[in-house]
Design goal:
Length: 177
Amino acid sequence: MSYKLSIKKKQLIIIIHVLSVICWLGGAMVMLLLGTYMLNSENGEQLYYTVENLHLIDVVMIRYTALVTLITGILLSVWTNWGLLKHYWIVIKLILTILLICFGIAYMSSWLSQLVSIVQQGKSLALSDAAFLNTAYSLIGGAIANIVALIFMTAISYFKPFGKIGKKGQKSKSGAA
């Protein structure tokens, strides 16, 4: 017999889950806006502080809220009747969340570190550096990918499409008996 959440505990975890998703989405939107603003910086100081703020947003608003989203999503799936692997929409959300977190760790964080390093060395000259611009555009693209994926996951949470996993196989087994 598996553990099931009480209504109050379930509501608390849902609140934490939704707030963490909101923070993650908000952080991704701020990354997009600051990334765009960064490319239009008028001087080295403005560029430096914008890149530093991008790094701060990544650390404070995205990293930990993404992990909280993953953990609370797993808890809600396992400790309720939904189950972690019973519905396609839950599996899709789980896979996308893990992919986004891995993408953030593998790419977004290193891109931010590269931007900080380039700006510290060259300040406003960084805006004419091809490596800086390529990395900046990659970071902006990553922010857009996060936003699109989070909106998609929110939509499938609401609509719950694609049905149950293995539902077709169960029908044919019961029909054969």
